[in-house]
Amino acid sequence: MPADQINYQLSACSGQRFFQPNRQSLIRFSAVLGLIAGLSILGCPAVQAQSTWEVGGGLGGMVYKGDLAPSIVPGNLRPAGNLLVRYNVSQPFTVRINAGLGQIAGRDTRFNDPFQQARNLAFKTSIREVNALLEYNFLNYSSLRRVKNWTPYVFGGLGLFTFKTNPQNPGYQRKSVFHFPLGVGIKYEFKRPWSLGLEYGTRFSGSDYLDNFGPNTFGGTNKLQNGNPDSKDTYTYIGVLLTYRFYRIVCPE
Q1: Are 211 and 13 in contact (CB under 8 A)?
Q2: Dihedral of CA 68/71/75/78: which sign?
Q3: CA 127 to chain centre
Q4: Is 32 helix (H, G, I), strand (E, B) or coil?
Q5: Quick check: 100 and 80 in contact, CB under 8 A?
Q6: What is the rounded distance in angstroms from the CA atom of residue 60 to the CA atom of residue 159?
Q7: ω into residue 167 within 30 of 0, thus cis?
Q8: Quick one: which H or E segment has residue 243?
Q9: DSSP class of residue 18?
Q10: According to the model, what pLDDT value does residue 91 have?
Q11: Which candidate, 181, 165, 180, 182, places its Cα nearest to that of 16?
């Protein structure tokens, strides 16, 4: 079935089961964000005097993994970008708010699997996301002027994203879904207070419809017309970050 001849049915999403937020869920999301920040600050009272703010942005790409792409391939990489605010609570811990947008895409014909070649589907999905993250830095950043600061780090948290697929079901509405970002990165302060970073992070959700193709897309028992119910869709952001850190100037007594 060629991708340009797909006629998606309105009932396709009737069997979707993933984390769609309501008002109560959004309140919980805000509460989790506050809890992460509060615990980080209260848990490190001895080093609060070293806390600093950081702002920045990044450019990179998003890449999809799911029914139409069982593995990550460079050909599915699509442009993406983000803006961020970091609150460096202590040397090891950083709280971060991240807002990004981008696109994911997939095509069966990029793979040699005869099943995918016969199915021959394709899609593009626009994504907007907001994440509340906690970062752990393995090395300390020194406030001394001539020190070359750098550190690898890991991060995790909770996020909310909306996605809009192409092609779409008749009567399609934009979906908002919770996800769980998890990843690694490295940052280097090349010229104080400027830092350059590289980051790799995957967003895990309970949705199987980021590609508009799931277990109940067409109905029936034909495997060519339905996704794998045991495989959920994910997408990964790979990008370069540029940030500016507001160091505190301490006057001698």
Answers
A1: no
A2: positive
A3: 9
A4: helix
A5: yes
A6: 19
A7: yes
A8: strand 234-246
A9: S
A10: 87
A11: 165
- For residue 193, whether the previous peptide bond is cis, meaning omega lies within 30 degrees of 0, is yes
* Predicted confidence band of residue 92 (pLDDT cuts 50, 70, 90): very high
Amino acid at 215: P
pLDDT tier for residue 169 given thresholds of 50, 70 and 90:
low
d(CA 242, CA 245) in angstroms, rounded, equals 10
Cα within 13 Å of Cα(54), Cβ side? 30
Name the token pair of 179.
């996800």
Rounded Cα distance between 109 and 60, Å, is: 24
Distance CA 36, CA 31 (A): 9
Global model pTM greater than 0.90: no
Structure tokens at 148: 């070359």
Residue type at 212 in one-letter notation? N
